[in-house]
What does this fold into?
Amino acid sequence: MSSKNNQPPGGDSEQPLRSRAGSAFRSLAGLVPGVMLCVAVTVVAMAIQHAEERLFAHPYIEALVIAILIGMAMRAAWTPSPRLQAGIAFSAKQLLEVAVMLLGASISFAALAASGAVLLGAIVATVALTLGATLVLGRLLGLPTKLSILVACGNAICGNSAIAAVAPVIDAHGDDIASSISFTALLGVLMVLGLPLLIPLLQLSATQYGIVAGLTVYAVPQVLAATVPAGLVSTQIGTLVKLVRVLMLGPVVVGLSLYAPRLNGDAVRAVSRMGLFTLVPWFIIGFLALATLRSLHLIPDTVVMPVTRIAGVLTVVSMAALGLGVDVRVLSHVGGRVTATVTLSLLLLLATSIGLVMVLAA
It folds into this structure.
C-alpha cells in the first residue's frame, strides 16, 4: 500500500488550513506591540483625568484629548519603528471603528426624528455647499482638479475615509492623496482640541454644540472626542448629525463616477469594484443596526452602560494612536495652496454650521 494511502483522512487539506491559521496568528501577534503602546498612553491619559477629578471634581481636559496630546508629543520627538506601526494603525482605524459601532447601542433614532426634516435638509445643504465652495476655492488657488476634489470631499464628508473612497474613482495621484490626507489628519486633531472652546465663547447649548461638532469634525470617532466635554446629549446629537454626513459618501462617490470619464476614461471602472462596505463602511452599518435595536427596546438598559464604557475606552486608545500617527512637522511638507484651501474651506464650514444653529434656535 502506498504511503499516500497511509495518510490520515484530510491530511492534504489540513496543511493549507494550518498554514493560514499560522499566518493569521503571526499577523495578530504583530499588532500587539503597537496596540500595547496605545494602551499605555491610554492608561496615562485616564490616570491624569482621574487626578483632575480628584483635585477639581471635574476634568478640565478629558482623557481623549490628553491621549492625543501625549501621542503627538511622542511622535514629534520619536518615530515609531515598523514593529510598532502596524498596531498603531490598527488601533487608529479598526479599534476606532469598533468603538463607533458600539456607541450605536446607546443611541435612539428618536433624537434624530425629534430634530425634524429641517435639520436633515440643512445637513445635506451644508455638505453640498462645502463641496462646491471648496472646489471653487481650490481651482482659484491653482490646485489641480483631482486634488481639489479630494480636499473638498475630505472637508465636507468624513476626512480621510472620504479621500480614500474617492481617490480610486477619480484615479488620483499618490502625491495628491498623501498631501490631502496628511493635512486632514493634523487639522482633524486641531479641530478636536479647539472646538470645545466655542461652548463658552458662543454660549452654545449641548444640542447646538452637538450639531456644530457633527457638521465640522472630520471623522465619526473624533466627534466623540470633541463632544465629550459637553455631555452625552452633545455626543448623541453630534454622532447622528455626523452619520448623515458620512452616509452622503455613497451618493457623492457614485456622482463622481459619472464625472470621472472627464478626468480619466478608466477611472469609472473603479466603482464596479466597490461593494456595500466601501460606499457605507461596515461600522456605520453596525452602528445603525445597534441603534435600531436600541430604538426598538431590544437592547436592555442594563447593557447600555457597560457597552458605552467599553466604547469610551476604545475611543481613548484610538485617539492615542491618532496622536502617534500625526507628525506636526507635516505642515512643512504641505503646499501653501493646499493649506489655504483646506483652512478656508473649514472656516466656511464652521461659519455655516454656527449660523445654522443660531437660525434653528431663533
Notes: The CA atoms of residues 70 and 303 lie 32 Å apart. The two ends are 90 Å apart (CA to CA). The domain at 33-361 is CATH 1.20.1530 (Na+/H+ antiporter like fold). The first helix runs from residue 11 to 56.
